[in-house]
């Protein structure tokens, strides 16, 4: 997605439980490694600058699908998982929330020494992006998170988030080095947040006359043409996942494929032998996060149907399924490193088959029945929320079927 836009990110408080944080780090690493193998570092950096893809990544990792907490938790998980492997992967994640954000200059200077990158220029980019979003754009949001992700080839993305106490919402800002032509003329790939009244935006292209008189951020860069097309990522305030939040045709086709259509379509995919439909469902959504194009991430809530959410929406996190998904990806990555890429190709094939299944698929409207089934069966898959482990329901619904098929 090469557009700028806005989205409502309701504030959610509370820590990620250790059992989920550990899994998020492992899945985040596996997804990253596959993307780096298949598409390269530049593509990975670009994806992080796309707010819909970033939100979908958080949802597939078991975070609350619509909340501001995805930003802090996903970046924290990626930093924990990837930085120990930065020399091997060529990806470095700096900063974070609160005091961690102030460490970005020192972290970038250290990276410069290791890689030969122009650290002073990277520090300048970090400071200018924060200055623009915290000062030049007076939208009522104060930055509390600043992350700078850079490759050893010099491409980078900034993800930072601001808090508006009055509205109880957050606004996330994305920057991308390849798309950046000017720091002072519509530089963002996206701005995610709730529209809340009039905003003084000194980096709007229409503010050029004012800007030229009161703001000079750089002697070397002058305003240029509009960089990106405006796009709106609107995340609703309601916590539960509703049918209107999901592309039912895409979700229904994927469920039909993974639960009903096998094994004919999967005969050649040795990876899938012995894998149950529920794990296949999760793996198909993870596959789309890895291989899907930008237009596939307009409904991040759909990706919550991989591993649920820590607060139980749309259903508790199925930890057994989560672990099997991680194990499958990890094995595929390890085999690919020694030249055996059949498992990675099988995972990619899932995305291709799911998209093909959508062509003539017509979903039914019993969306709530699908969620009921997932919740009733959650205990079978090690379902957990921040409240604890799921137990078998005392009066389980019988004969509940996914009527999306």
Low-confidence stretches: 1-6, 198-203, 207-231
Would you list the SSEs in sequence order as H and E?
EEHHHHHEHHEEEEEEHEHHHEHHHEE
Give Rg in angstroms. Answer: 21 Å
Count of beta strands: 13
Distance between the termini: 30 Å
| Class inferred from helices and paired strands | alpha+beta
Biggest sheet details = 6 strands, antiparallel
Average pLDDT over all residues: 82
Please state the overall shape, judged from the principal axes of the Cα atoms. globular
- Number of helices in the DSSP assignment: 14
User: How helix-rich are the residues, as a percent range?
Assistant: 40-55%
Strand coverage percent: 5-15%
Protein name: DUF763 domain-containing protein
Region (Disordered): 384-405
Pfam family, one: DUF763
InterPro entries: DUF763 (IPR008482)
Question: What this model shows, in words?
Answer:
This protein has 405 residues and is of the alpha+beta class. The protein has helices at residues 18-38, 41-48, 51-60, 69-82, 86-89, 104-115, 119-136, 208-214, 248-259, 277-291, 304-307, 319-337, 342-357, 367-377; strands at residues 3-4, 9-10, 91-97, 137-138, 142-151, 156-164, 169-176, 190-192, 200-201, 229-230, 317-318, 383-385, 388-389. The strands form four sheets. Strands 2, 3, 5, 6, 7 and 8 form a six-stranded antiparallel β-sheet that branches. Strands 11-12-13 form a three-stranded antiparallel β-sheet. Strands 1-10 form a two-stranded parallel sheet. Helix 3 packs across helix 4 (69-82) and helix 9 packs across helix 10.
């Amino acid at each position: 997605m090469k557009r700028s836009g806005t989205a409502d990110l309701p504030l959610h408080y509370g820590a990620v439980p250790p059992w989920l944080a550990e899994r998020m780090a492992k899945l985040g690493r596996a997804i990253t490694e596959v993307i780096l193998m298949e598409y390269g570092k530049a593509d990975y950096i670009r994806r992080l600058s796309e707010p819909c893809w970033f939100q979908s990544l958080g949802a597939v990792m078991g975070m609350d699908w619509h909340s501001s907490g995805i930003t802090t938790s996903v970046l924290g998980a990626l930093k924990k998982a990837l930085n120990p492997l930065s020399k091997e992967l060529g990806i470095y994640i700096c900063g974070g929330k609160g005091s961690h954000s102030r460490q970005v200059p020192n972290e970038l200077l250290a990276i410069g020494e290791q890689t030969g990158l122009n650290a002073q220029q990277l520090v300048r980019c970090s400071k200018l992006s924060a200055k623009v979003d915290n000062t030049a754009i007076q939208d009522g949001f104060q930055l509390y998170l600043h992350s700078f992700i850079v490759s050893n080839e010099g491409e980078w993305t900034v993800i930072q988030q601001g808090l508006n106490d009055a509205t109880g919402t957050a606004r996330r800002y994305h920057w991308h080095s390849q798309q950046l032509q000017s720091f002072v003329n519509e530089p963002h790939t996206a701005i995610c947040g709730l529209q809340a009244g009039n905003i003084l935006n000194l980096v709007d292209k229409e503010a050029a006359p004012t800007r030229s008189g009161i703001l000079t951020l750089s002697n070397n860069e002058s305003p240029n043409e509009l960089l990106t097309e405006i796009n709106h990522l609107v995340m609703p305030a309601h916590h539960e996942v509703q049918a209107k939040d999901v592309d039912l045709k895409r979700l229904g086709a994927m469920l039909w494929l993974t639960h009903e259509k096998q094994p004919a379509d999967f005969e050649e995919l040795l990876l899938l032998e012995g894998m149950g439909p529920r794990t296949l469902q999760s793996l198909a959504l993870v596959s789309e996060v890895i291989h899907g194009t930008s237009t596939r991430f307009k409904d991040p809530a759909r990706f919550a149907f991989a591993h649920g959410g820590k607060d139980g929406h749309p259903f508790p996190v199925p930890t057994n399924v989560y672990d099997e998904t991680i194990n499958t990806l990890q094995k595929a990555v390890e085999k690919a490193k020694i030249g055996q890429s059949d498992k990675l190709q099988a995972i990619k094939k899932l995305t291709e088959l799911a998209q093909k299944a959508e062509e003539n698929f017509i979903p039914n409207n019993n969306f709530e029945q699908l969620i009921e089934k997932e919740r009733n069966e959650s205990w079978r898959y090690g379902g957990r929320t921040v409240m604890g482990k799921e137990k078998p329901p005392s009066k389980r619904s019988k004969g509940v079927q996914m009527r999306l098929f």
